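Model the whole thing, not chain by chain.
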Amino acid sequence: MTAIYKRELRSYFITPIGYVFAGMFLTVSGLLFSWLVLSADNSGAYSYAKISNYFVYLLFVFSVLIPLLTMKLLSEEKKQKTEQLLLTSPVSLTGVVIAKYLAALTIFAATLLVNSLNYILLYIYGNPNAAVILSNILGLFLIGASFIAIGLFLSSVTENQLIAAVSSIAVIVALLLISLLADTIEKEFFRVILKWFSVIDRYAPFTLGYFDIPAIIYFVSFTAVFLFLTVRVYEKRRWS
Amino acid sequence: MVEISHLSKNYGDKKAVNDISFSVEEGEIMGFLGPNGAGKSTTLNILTGFLSATSGSAKIDGIDILEQPLEAKKLIGFLPEIPPLYPDMTVAEYMNFCYELKGCKLPRKQHLHEIGEVVKIADVNKRLIKNLSKGYRQRVGIAQALIGNPKVLIFDEPTIGLDPKQIIEIRNLIKHLGKNHTVILSTHILPEVQAVCDRIVIINKGRIVANEKTENLVNAVDGTRRLVAKIVGPEDQVLQLLRSTQGVKFADKLGRRDTDSVSYLIESQENVDIRKPLFYALARASYPLIGLEGDELNLEDIFMRLVDPQKKEKTEKRRRNASQAPEAGKRSGEKQ
């Protein structure tokens, strides 16, 4: 399992994907940060709202960048027929999936951590609420982790990287927009269900500085479900 | 060492493998033969745990691949039809990756070095796999299977797409490996199994049609024996005599002539040894018999008969025609 994890991490940096992901992430989030947070009029109660806006924008950046990380994780193995090596080695199916997942998660978390250095700038200008910043970082991490699980799952159902990437983007954007859609629905029953799935609604407490336990459980189980489904895809293929 | 019993695999309605059973003894090199699409790869993929069987079981050294997959997989080195290589890694990186992946406990440097020597990839260690030639890729694939010194080696069409020199090299390598491992070699190239394997299992349309020691296969398929005789004497009379001898089913000139003798192809009826009657008949008529050799069916013929019985007659004709060609003496099946 560690062998797969290490190989995957390495492959992010022998192909340009790792650099593209980290570079794009840091550039775009840096621009957003300076535009939305630093150069904005940060007086009074507004400032929290501005920072929260920034975090919501970041989610849309994720929708494009995270599929970059996940698109080739499993699809490429299938295309190159190397999955035959992995699946006939003394490593469990779950082990393979988790190793791949952790590799993508590591790159994502490392980039997120580097990106968090931006917030230090805030202390030069004022005295921001540390809880808001920390809970936002945690929220972003959890959402990223669940998006990676979605990307990994979609990468397991195709052998084409591009299809894996495009479908992941579509699903993630849909999850982000579901909240807007829910607001337009009259019937309360459907609205509540859609809201329940809405990532942004789940994320909201984090932007306000709450470490929202139900939301944490929500994202963790969201991730677990997609990892489980990925294992099932392989199981099913083995048996059919 | 390897035991497959009543194995079936359905893809939807299609039965890719249909109730097959065979076993491979320790230290044996088994040839697994069949036309494309016969179910060879499916069987091997089940045996290695890549696919699951619809019914039946596959055991490696008594360990069921389905019940204890991790233990069973440790005993197998597998080279799939397409070698599972990562093009963006160097050979050394790839070998180290496989070493860790398989959880190998042998001393790393020495073990990988030894494998590199055996399959002759030491000189490409630092090259990217995507820049390697087909022959080298195949060898890296074999090297990967050898990591951890597994008891059972499974090669799925290891010589496909190689040039003749490489084919011979890989064949010799497999023969060499067969000394210390149990080997299953899948192929549709007949001389390959003849050259390498102790035993042959032939599969067609998902069913086993033959399972014999290589040397027994010929007799198992066909009781008739063929002889090539060199006889001195007038051709027409000799031929007439041959045809009238008891037990002879077919006789004809082969068109090969030495200074004074002519070669004839003679087929006996099933399970009849015609060598003695032939000798006496010729001796009585004073036609000296100066050479007699068995003309065994070669694997190609056997294969065609097993795989497609209707083609038997056609093959027969083709054989006779081929026999009459001047270079017929070089038939690969001929026992020296």
